[in-house]
Amino acid sequence: MSSPEENLRKKTIDDLPDEILEYILSLVSPYKDSESCREVSRRWCRTINSVNQHSKCDLYRSVLNSSVLWQCIVPPNLGPTTTITKRYSHAACYCDNFMYVFGGCTLRCTMFNDLWTLDLSSRKWIRPYSTGCYPSPKACATICCYNKSLILFGGWTHPPPYPLHQIQRLFNELHIYDITSNTWNIIHSPVTPPPMAGHSATIHGNNMVVFGGLQWGGSLFLYSSSNDVWCFNFETLCWSKPETSEEKPKTRYGQSQIYLDDENMMIMGGCQGPNSILDDVWILTITKSVWVWKQLKVNNSQWAAPLLWCHPACRVGDVVVVFSCGPSQALSHYSSCSPVRTSPPPPQDASIPPEVVARQASQGPLPNEKDVNVNGQRGSLGKNKSSLDASASSSSSSGYRGTIGGCLREQLMEMSVFQVRMCLIQCRRANGVGSRRRTAALGG
């Protein structure tokens, strides 16, 4: 007969009750570590699935109640080659437990073509050393994840300082980055979209759908916004321009494009040109013949993000979240350079109404604006000084970093939540497409 000491030695974590095991596994990182725990046993797999489901529900409720706890992550600074450089107008996407960041520009108009990865488990930046045909240094491009590859398209770059009087350059290059082999490849197609920047893109099945953006306006120094839809097929590696319905959104750039399912995508906000900011919402239904646009009627529009055009939106369950400044801070973003510069190429002949300029001047400087730089001031998110200094030294800023009228500002931010479930259901009923299974999946 074994002694009590021997019985204690035989006890393992699998002898714990399900509730205790679930609590322990809830402390594990939801990325790599969670996937590793799933492979231990069937019991652990069921427990991890339960933990993930509870985490999603908690996040969803927190977003709806605006009770989200923000934390500033400061990765360890191990040298200039291990920390990403401060930048804005970069492209970013999530793929297999990593966040990938490409390109962007600095306040001194330095352009990047580097690729960085943020390990979401260890919260450390990694710069992979890649080979192949590198993309050009640029900002305002789009990057999407497809089948363990990154799809980079479009973008814009500053002209070199010498010789003088050179124009900015737009790109229509399409590069595919193979994550496994760390290789860049450029794709050549007989039909290509025009060079563009500030556009939006999402992956739907085997297609990448691109909408809007800034394009050349026919004159050498003028840009114009677009409402064209382009489609890139990953099986044929060819571009096509699908036929769309007569009713369509206004031309725009700087909008948010949200994936709903393989047959539907959503467009929110955007900027049409000088002093023409949009806050409308559209759904594009992808069919085999004519792609159908449908404008959605938005309730409670008074709670919409005031600067929807320059703040990316993110889908959480059946809601879309926009992180923006509050209505009281919206007017302070305006300046005499026109609020149309989330994409750096500025349309010409911009102006601001005199009453807006007078109101801005009467407000005085914003609090905590101490860091003077070439493009304006940098404020805070309502934190104390120590918290502000920590976020300033971080490689990832904790506030709004859109370029508006030549000013770079961080102000008190608010979250706006947009419900998409009923809008998508009504759109499918109107178009006669979709299925009950996909509608239920959207609500999950």
From TrEMBL:
Residues 361-401 are annotated as: Disordered. Residues 387-398 have a biased composition (Low complexity). Residues 10-63 form the F-box domain. InterPro entries: F-box-like_dom_sf, F-box_dom, F-box_only_SRC, Kelch-typ_b-propeller. GO terms for cellular component: SCF ubiquitin ligase complex. Pfam families: Beta-prop_FBX42, F-box-like. It comes from the Eukaryota. SUPFAM superfamilies: F-box domain (SSF81383), Kelch motif (SSF117281). GO terms for molecular function: ubiquitin-like ligase-substrate adaptor activity. Signal peptide: none annotated. This is F-box domain-containing protein.
